[in-house]
Amino acid sequence: MKITTRIRNDFITGIAIVLPIAVTIMVLNLILTALNSALLEPIVKGFEPYATGPYVSILAKVIIFLVILSAVTLVGVAARIIFIRKFFTFWEGLFLKVPMVNKIYKGTKQMSRAFLGEGKTIFKKVALIEYPRKGIYSIAFVTTAVGKKELSDKSGRELVSLFLPTTPNPTSGMFIAVPKEDVIFLDMSIEDGFKLVISSGAV
């Protein structure tokens, strides 16, 4: 195996490991920022009549420090519970134990596995649809969506469940149901489809 090929494969494998963790952390950061605006700032403002000037800023820092300290302590508790597992299994287990976070992590991991062409994924085939308007085509992925039969029955047409990813971040996108006759099924692999999306058509 060529050195460049091996480096490329190692890089792709690294993406598959880092991407689920990175996306989960980014989403958590957004949630914590929202909590700060909705919870911490109102508390600090409540103390303003009693502590003005620099004291308000100090109080805010103390509250944030206590929140971080509590979060780190909870991580320590979780680490003690599953300490015997391997490093990556530990972090994966931690993510999977947290409500809502586990759904984000699982979804991102499945997309990473699909990108690598490993194991069973939520995607069945790569497809081409006319979007966002007639004459312009976009790459989509046929999914194994639950309730697909009901969608077809209610609409009176055979619908195909598709995930339409964004470029260059395929972990975001939207679910759409398209009439089967409007879907062009491609022969390329799921892995090649994701490479095409991530590279903006360069690969």
Number of helices: 6
| Shape field | extended
Q: What average pLDDT do the residues reach?
A: 74
Give the DSSP E fraction (strand runs of 2 or more residues). Answer: 15-25%
Extended strand count: 5
- The tally of structural domains comes to 2
Strand order of the largest sheet: 4-3-2-1-5
**Which runs of at least 5 residues are low in confidence (pLDDT < 50)?**
none
Rg: 23 Å
Order of helices and strands: HHHHEEHEEEH
What structural class is derived from the secondary structure elements?
A: alpha+beta
Share of residues in helices: 55-70%
**Largest sheet descriptor:** 5 strands, antiparallel
The end-to-end span amounts to 21 Å
Explain what this protein looks like in three dimensions.
This protein is an alpha+beta fold. It folds into two domains: 3-114, no CATH class; 122-198, SH3 type barrels (Roll). The chain is 58% helix and 15% strand. The protein has six helices and five strands, in the order H-H-H-H-E-E-H-E-E-E-H. The protein has helices spanning 3-47, 54-81, 87-97, 101-116, 148-155, 190-198; strands spanning 123-130, 137-143, 159-165, 173-179, 184-185. Strands 4-3-2-1-5 form a five-stranded antiparallel sheet. A hairpin with a 7-residue loop joins strand 3 (159-165) and strand 4 (173-179). Helix 1 (3-47) packs antiparallel against helix 4 (101-116) and helix 3 packs across helix 4 (101-116). The protein is extended, with a radius of gyration of 23 Å. The model has no long low-confidence stretch (mean pLDDT 74).
What's the layout of helices and strands?
Layout: H1 3-47, H2 54-81, H3 87-97, H4 101-116, E1 123-130, E2 137-143, H5 148-155, E3 159-165, E4 173-179, E5 184-185, H6 190-198
Antiparallel strand pairs: 1-2, 1-5, 2-3, 3-4
